[in-house]
Amino acid sequence: MSxxxxxxxxxxxxxxxxxxxxxxxxxxxxxxxxxxxxSLKKISVIKQIKPLVAGDLELLIRAAESSNGEFEVNExxxxxxxTKEPEKEPELKEDGTPVATAExxxxxxxxxxxxxxxxxxxxxxxxxxxxSRKELTSLFAPYGRVMHVKYRRDDQKKFKGSIFVExxxxxxxxxxxxxxxxxxxxELLVMSEYVEMKAKxxxxxxxxxxxxxxxxxxxxxxxxxxxxxxxxxxxxxxKSKLGITVxxxxxxxxxxxxxxxxxxxxxxxxxxxxxxxxxxxxxxLTFKAADDESRGACMDDKSRFFKMLKERxxxxxxxxxxxxxxxxxxxxDQPRKKQKTD
Length: 342
Fold this sequence. Notes:
The chain is an alpha+beta fold. It contains 14 helices and 14 strands. It has helices at about 5-15, 15-20, 25-30, 40-45, 50-55, 55-65, 100-115, 135-140, 170-180, 195-205, 230-240, 270-275, 290-315, 330; strands spanning about 40, 70-75, 80, 120-125, 145-155, 160-165, 180-185, 185, 190, 220-225, 245-250, 260-265, 280, 285-290. Strands 11-12-10-14-13 form a five-stranded antiparallel β-sheet, sandwiched between helices. It has a four-stranded antiparallel β-sheet with strand order 5-6-4-9. Helix 1 packs across helix 11. The radius of gyration is 25 Å and the shape is elongated.
């Protein structure tokens, strides 16, 4: 990556809505000018930009000029601004939750359609006892990678004997429909049209009102090839190269070194993978959509991490940092040495 590309990416980062929400000082700089111009000298001393340009204002100008119109410099070559309109404060419902924007609705609709195309409906399972998730995953795994299994239940949460199964791609789902899978020697009814039919039945001629879509999406992706990279380095790589915020990184144990799961903010998984190209690579890392097991492992690790932070704030100790386990259970059974006092 050239110097101009590196500076341009950092400009995108500091003008990103997430950064603007957190950085009151930079917001104030923008609001000082009605047209949102900022002098090149001021930008050049911003913490993220300063080590990249080292006082070279011409480098900032070249970076802006290479942005395909996203940034522009004034005629006197003394000021810079982002040409994108700043995000407006979200409209709120009566309960205080944000109303989804038209773009969020469209993105959510595209995501649902993508999931539906990769999914099948299967009926004919026993309801008591109901099959375990592991049994269902094992049943369909020979056809292709199983991403998600959803049990269909009635209002009393009783299993209906039918499920939705999401696969890694549409081709696998289409193939499964042509087969005759059985469970406990009983033939199952397998359909793909039913998934689309239920989606139309639920959403046709309606606007999406689900509160969870009033954001740009949430994605879980598995990665490999990270070697000894720490979680923060992985977060920084994704942020600097793609401008995507990583909420949490779960690193697998030593036997799977270099592998893990990342939770991404404001993006759906298919949109993230499309940014990587056909090989799904970002430098040495290779990504793929996370399945149920990996998503669960990441969420559990995130819960443990925040529990540990909470305990530390209360003086309760916890794991010794994000990469390791800190003091062992046996260590914690030993009395701590008293510190010397004056």
